[in-house]
């Protein structure tokens, strides 16, 4: 019962701390906001695989950005969403700085070759990806496997968004020509 009271009280405390900080941004109001939001930010980063120390560092970076840019916030009702958007961007920047290439796993070392493949073979998919350039493979993986947005990939890799769009387009084009089965008839245009 005590835990449910604490949990149900959190949104009210967070809302009050947010309003006080946005009305009067000073050291005391920011301290209260910091103490309210930081544990949630640490949990956010921990749930995405970050170590405790890194989660705390990224949370402090996010709160520093909140402190500096709070005056630029247009819609106060979207404050929480704004804070967690900053958190996502901080995580993407961190991954972009510390892991310039997407880690690829040798599928043959994981999957037993004696098992009967069901549907599309993982080996076949891996083979399709090997003829792409590494930056095209990375762009496809981030966009369609990790489900990142184009602007997030561009920010994490510190490249223009047009470059990301071009890499994904080229990779899809190469895959489309590579995946055409030689024995299948082409679809004809239907005339009405």
Task: Pick out its properties.
192 residues; mainly alpha; 9 helices; disordered C terminus
Provide a descriptive summary of the structure in words.
This protein is mainly α and about 190 residues long. Helix content is about 70%, strand content about 0%. The chain is built from nine helices and no strands. The chain has helices at about 1-25, 25-45, 50-70, 80-100, 105-110, 120-130, 135-145, 150-155, 160-180. The chain is elongated, with a radius of gyration of 23 Å. About 15% of the residues are buried. Mean pLDDT is about 75; it is low at about 1-5 and about 185-190.
Report the sheet with the most strands, covering strand number, pairing sense and barrel closure.
none
The overall pLDDT average reads: 76
SSE order, as H and E?
A: HHHHHHHHH
Instruction: Flag low-confidence runs.
Output: 1-7, 183-192
User: Which strand-content bin applies to the residues?
Assistant: under 5%
Number of contiguous helices: 9
Query: Using only CA atoms, what is the Rg?
Result: 23 Å
Helix content: 55-70%
**What overall form do the CA principal axes indicate?**
elongated
In a few lines, what is going on in this structure?
The protein is mostly helical and 192 residues long.
Strand-helix topology:
Blueprint: H1 2-23, H2 27-46, H3 52-69, H4 79-98, H5 107-110, H6 122-130, H7 134-145, H8 150-157, H9 161-179
